[in-house]
Design a protein that fits this description.
The chain is about 10% helix and about 45% strand. It is mostly beta strands. It is elongated and about 105 Å long. The strands form 4 sheets. The protein has a 25-stranded parallel sheet that branches. A two-stranded antiparallel sheet has the order 6-7. Strands 27-28 form a two-stranded antiparallel sheet.
Length: about 500
């Protein structure tokens, strides 16, 4: 058997080649990114009252893209748009009798309408089933009508989406008005019921019932105007998503979803959320999407949003603000962990009532002005971090936590008296009367919850005010019926309460 020996120079040459290859490989390999992980851990472990106040910014959500040609092969080509016998093109108004899964009649009717025309659905025959692609400005309306305050009038027209498809999609640059109609999406899957991109969607007297993984309404760019509408969205995220858009609501009711409204304010015009009721399912923030009633964010610093006279209940966070100026007035926030959270931007909150389990208003960064509000049930009224500026005044608080606990000042030896802070230096004044029942009826009471009084009740306070007993330094009441009145603060013999002192004798 032959043996091979390598010279010393050849060995050194091979070793040098291996070292060079390793060096090139190490230079090509990207460095392991640990900074973001460390920052994430730091943000969750820094001492901030245990609130885990991470910004609600959602990751980029990949929207499903639907090709209408796959749903209706040949759509828009020859044979489309005649609408059937007697229709023809450029019609001002077309009436369709609903009933059965014949969506082609609806789509043909839309093609036959002229821009600005009206498509009327009649519900005598049943439910209209189809996915409508609206590429021209029209009015889509039901003949029966719907009033969310009194219920549906007879018979309301219903448009139902096919399984896994939207109810309707609005093309870019198109303005559509939807009124007096019920939209159903019982098996939406990964499709929203109403979708649009850079479109103007106006909805009046509309009921929308959706169940799926996506929101009931998903608009990217443009304008969404909702008035006298109801949205029942059985989804694990927000019921309504408007990204880089303007949102206007009035007399809107949203229920059934983990989160309520997710608004990314656009630069076109300020948004106005008015007289809107949002009721969540009470899901905690321990997993899944953030349970936020109204989340408002913006890409530009000049964006503004107004929220007025609205009720937000059943979410882990009632109102979340990030990078936008929000003016909120007349809010009713209840059944929440944190009433309002300012991650950055500006928040002006006034004349509102907030019932929260942990904190009333938390400011992480930015400027918050909190004036003339009512807080109830909170463990802490305000929480602000060094990067935030929080100004508070003229606020009132009902809570049984340590926030409203009095301090105890020594009066005589080991006998103390409670001292209540009433000057409002902390930006609020504690209230010790029962929480008004009328307010409760507008908040948790409207959700069927039993009345709970959040007023602070000091042990033995009634007896102390009557002149009996005192408190020790730890705030424990010490009852004593032997002495009464100011004799509690002296070493004089005990005097009964009804013992009269004789007036000085006059000569």
């Amino acid at each position: 058997m032959k043996s091979f020996r390598m010279s010393r120079s050849r060995v050194l040459s091979v070793a040098a080649s291996v070292a060079a290859l390793l060096a090139v490989d190490l230079m090509a390999a990207p460095p392991k990114a640990e900074a973001q992980t460390a920052a994430r851990v730091e943000s969750r472990t820094r001492p901030n009252f245990g609130l885990l106040l991470d910004p609600p910014t959602r990751p980029h959500r990949r929207r499903p893209r639907y090709a209408y040609d796959d749903y209706r092969p040949g759509w828009g080509g020859p044979g489309w748009g005649d609408g059937g016998p007697g229709w023809g093109y450029e019609q001002d108004e077309i009436v369709v009798d609903c009933g059965g899964p014949d969506g082609e009649a609806l789509e043909s009717a839309i093609q036959a309408l002229r821009p600005g025309g009206a498509l009327t659905l009649r519900g005598q025959g049943g439910i209209c089933v189809g996915w409508l692609y609206i590429d021209k400005p029209i009015t889509l309306q039901g003949e029966g009508g719907f009033d969310p305050r009194t219920g549906a009038r007879v018979p309301a027209a219903v448009l139902q989406a096919p399984d896994g498809r939207p109810c309707l999609t609005v093309a870019p640059g198109v303005q559509v008005t939807i009124q007096d109609l019920t939209l159903l999406s019982p098996r939406g899957g990964s499709a929203a019921c109403v979708t649009g991109e850079d479109a103007d969607i106006v909805m009046r007297r509309v009921a929308l019932r959706h169940e799926g993984m996506e929101p009931a309404i998903d608009l990217r760019g443009g304008l969404l105007d909702l008035r006298d509408a109801q949205i029942d969205a059985r989804t694990s995220g927000a019921a309504l998503v408007a990204e880089n858009a303007t949102l206007n609501t009035q007399n809107l009711i949203i229920s059934g979803s983990v989160a309520g409204i997710d608004l990314e304010q656009g630069a076109r015009a300020p948004s106005n959320i008015h007289s809107t009721t949002l009721t969540g399912v009470g899901t905690p923030n321990s997993f899944g999407p953030r349970a936020i009633g109204v989340a408002v964010r913006a890409r530009q610093d000049s964006a503004r949003t107004e929220i007025n006279n609205s009720r937000i209940c059943g979410f882990a966070e009632g109102l979340a603000v990030e990078g936008v100026a929000v003016q909120a007035r007349g809010l009713r926030i209840c059944r929440t962990d944190k009433g309002a959270v300012l991650y950055n931007g500006e928040l002006a909150l006034s004349d509102s009532r907030i019932r929260a389990r942990e904190v009333g208003v938390a400011a992480i960064a930015g400027r918050a002005v909190i004036v003339g509000n009512i807080f109830a049930g909170v463990d802490r009224v305000f929480w602000d971090e060094p990067r935030a500026s929080l100004e508070a005044r003229d606020n009132r608080v009902w809570t049984r936590s340590q926030v409203c606990r009095p301090t105890f000042r020594p009066r005589h030896r080991d006998r103390h008296v409670p001292i209540w802070e009433t000057d409002g230096r902390r930006g609020f004044v504690c209230q010790y009367s029962p929480y008004p029942y009328a307010w409760w009826a507008e908040e948790e009471g409207a959700l069927g919850q039993a009345y709970h009084d959040d007023g602070y009740a000091l042990e033995g306070w009634g007896g102390f005010q009557a002149g009996y007993g005192w408190y020790d330094r730890d705030g424990r009441y010490v009852p004593d019926r032997q002495v009464w009145g100011d004799d509690r603060w002296t070493d004089r013999p005990a005097r009964r309460r009804n013992q009269d002192r004789r007036p000085p004798r006059r000569w």
